[in-house]
């Protein structure tokens, strides 16, 4: 294992932070970082940042994986792009600056990106992203396909955007961050499910004389992320919905680890919110009862 990956096992301790070679020269930064959550296990997050135009294009992660699984991810990135250590502060400037650039130019941001930037951690208080890292010689340089451009622009058309005097457009190949309509539909369903759970959990809190914890939405999001990542690829909810209850212990453990890494600066708050959520979940006798209480369509 690389020397820069060796870290303690304290929850939230930085395990690794890497970026592809040549990111300054080609304007594309693929950032892979992880925090320790226990002996030889990490929570990881990955970000793809287009420094020249679109900003933060992709954000995803894993709630709980082994060192060896993380090393495999590094090996894959190494083989494709080459990697080097990246200062965590620089990683934050790239990601949060990418978010600012996306908003400024009107490009859509990845779904639930805040879930993974929580693992990255915020910029120091009073510090703003270094926007000098972005654009190319002061101009917006798009290196993408027309399909990618059309799928990411919000509030304007490609023709109008490309007519800007500060925009250079170089037609490139499609890449793996192309917006997927089918994945969008799944994301919409997950978002609806999570919001319904937040609303129902808050109702339960008020009914039981409790004030909903400010971190309750983050805990529910972490629960759903851990749940999805705990299910086998061939999981059939029509036939195996009862097995969700059987996996509750594993999911709660994954969720706890994820929250420990995401809120390592407020472990007491995360634990209090999780205890509140656990009380809500224990009030539900079955997955069917939970789903029915959310008032969602069966599909």
Topology record:
Blueprint: E1 14-20, H1 23-26, E2 28-38, E3 41-50, E4 55-66, H2 67-80, E5 83-85, H3 88-105, H4 113-120, E6 140-144, H5 146-152, H6 158-162, E7 167-171, H7 181-207, H8 216-230, H9 237-240, H10 243-246, H11 248-262, H12 267-282, H13 287-294
Parallel strand pairs: 6-7
Antiparallel strand pairs: 1-2, 1-5, 2-3, 3-4
How would you briefly describe this protein structure?
The protein has 299 residues and is an alpha+beta fold. Helix content is 48%, strand content 18%.
Sum up the structure in keywords:
single chain; 299 residues; alpha+beta; 2 domains; five-stranded antiparallel beta sheet; two-stranded parallel sheet; 13 helices; 7 strands; 48% helix; disordered N terminus
Please provide a written account of the structure.
There is one protein chain. This protein is an alpha+beta fold and 299 residues long. The protein folds into 2 domains: 131 residues, no CATH class; 114 residues, no CATH class. It is 48% helix and 18% strand. It has 13 helices and 7 strands. It has a 5-stranded antiparallel β-sheet with strand order 4-3-2-1-5, sandwiched between helices. Helix 7 packs across helix 8 and helix 8 crosses helix 11. The termini are far apart. The N terminus is likely disordered.
Helical proportion, percent range: 40-55%
Give Rg in angstroms.
21 Å
Order of helices and strands: EHEEEHEHHEHHEHHHHHHH
- Class based on secondary structure composition and strand pairing: alpha+beta
Which stretches are poorly predicted, pLDDT < 50 over at least 5 residues? 1-9
Main β-sheet: number of strands, strand sense, barrel status?
5 strands, antiparallel
How many structural units, i.e. domains? 2
Count every helix, treating DSSP H or I runs of 4 or more residues as helices: 13
Give the overall pLDDT as a whole number.
83
Strand order in the sheet with the most strands: 4-3-2-1-5
Please tell me what the overall shape is: globular
Total strands: the figure is 7
* N- to C-terminal distance: 44 Å
Report the portion of residues in β strands: 15-25%
């Amino acid at each position: 294992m690389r020397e820069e990956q060796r870290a303690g096992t304290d929850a939230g301790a930085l395990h690794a932070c890497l970026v592809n070679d040549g990111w300054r020269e080609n304007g594309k930064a693929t950032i892979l970082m992880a925090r320790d959550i226990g002996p030889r296990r990490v929570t990881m997050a990955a970000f793809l940042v287009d420094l020249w135009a679109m900003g933060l294009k992709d954000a995803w992660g894993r709630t709980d994986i082994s060192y060896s699984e993380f090393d495999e991810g590094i090996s894959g990135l190494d083989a494709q792009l080459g990697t080097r250590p990246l200062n965590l502060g620089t990683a934050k400037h790239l990601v949060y600056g990418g978010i600012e650039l996306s908003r400024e130019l009107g490009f859509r941001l990845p779904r639930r990106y805040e879930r993974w930037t929580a693992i990255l951690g915020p910029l120091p208080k009073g510090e703003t992203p270094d926007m000098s890292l972005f654009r190319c010689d002061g101009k917006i340089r798009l290196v993408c396909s027309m399909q990618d451009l059309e799928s990411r622009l919000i509030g304007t058309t490609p023709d109008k955007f490309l007519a800007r005097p500060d925009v250079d457009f170089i037609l490139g190949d499609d890449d793996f961050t192309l917006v997927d309509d089918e994945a969008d539909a799944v994301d919409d369903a997950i978002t609806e499910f999570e919001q319904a759970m937040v609303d129902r959990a808050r109702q339960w809190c008020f009914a039981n004389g409790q004030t909903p914890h400010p971190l309750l939405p983050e805990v529910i999001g972490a629960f759903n992320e851990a749940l999805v990542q705990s299910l086998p690829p061939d999981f059939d909810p029509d036939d195996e919905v009862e097995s969700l209850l059987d996996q509750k212990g594993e999911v709660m453990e994954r969720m706890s680890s994820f929250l420990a890494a995401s809120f390592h600066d407020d472990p007491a708050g995360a634990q209090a919110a999780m205890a509140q959520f656990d009380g809500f979940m224990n009030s539900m006798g079955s997955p069917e009862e939970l789903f029915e209480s959310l008032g969602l369509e069966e599909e």
